[in-house]
Amino acid sequence: MRKKARATEVFVRLKRAYPDAHCELDHETPLQLLMATILSAQCTDKRVNMVTPSLFKRFPTAQALADARQEELEEMIKSTGFFRNKAKSLIGLGKALVERHGGAVPDSMETLVRLPGVGRKTANVILGNAFSKNEGVVVDTHVGRLSLRLGLTRETDPVKVERELMPLVPREDWTMLAHVLVFHGRRICYARTPKCEVCVLSEICPSSTV
Q: Which residues have a Cβ under 8 Å from the Cβ of 82 and sit 6 or more positions away?
């Protein structure tokens, strides 16, 4: 099966299997999603979701975040790992949003990636989920791993993986493609022992053990 045809079939099957696939970081506003996404680096969404309710209540605006004390913020997010760097990024983020954008989260790739702690992957998360803009494909560990297993890429660098995935599905599906791959990676296609025997992709997956 040619790569594009396989990608189309993968997307169709996974969307059917996970019709409710969505970003699993709890949030209500673009700022909350941005804060949660920064915390999710090298950390599970489940752990982040345990930390963010009190964080969002204590720092509800970019100004509040800009005025945060490093020590207090570190203590609140300690369980997410790399808490010193994350706290520094969050405070820098608050200051940058206040100084450059009137406290609002911008809705373009160009402006987002200039913010402290924000790279292309994080920007894609915000654009796709907070603003319904498909500027690219979010390539996290699950998306990268499954793309390799499914033969959609041979690359391991997230930027190169994204570049290969984008032409394989229509632009309007880029955000959802990442969601269904993440859902599948967390529920069936585990890193060490994938459940190929119950996988909806087993007969079209070049890595299937069935």
A: 41, 42
Burial 107-129 (b: 16+ CB within 10 A, else e): bebeebeebebbebbbbbbbbbb
Listing DSSP states for 150-176 in one string gives: TTS-S--SHHHHHHHHGGGS-GGGHHH
Helix 83-101 vs helix 30-39: angle between axes, to the nearest 10 degrees? Answer: 150
pLDDT, mean over the chain: 97
pLDDT for 26 beyond 80: yes
Q: Above 90 in pLDDT, residue 1?
A: no
User: What amino acid positions are annotated as catalytic residues?
Assistant: 121, 140
Neighbouring C-beta atoms of residue 157, cutoff 10 Å: 11
Q: How many CB atoms lie within 10 A of CB 95?
A: 18
148: Cβ contacts below 8 Å, ≥ 6 apart? 154, 156
Question: Residues 41-54: what's their mean pLDDT?
Answer: 97
- The tokens describing 108, both together, are 């373009």
Spatial distance between the Cα atoms of 130 and 41, rounded to a whole number of angstroms: 18
Tokens of 1: 């099966």
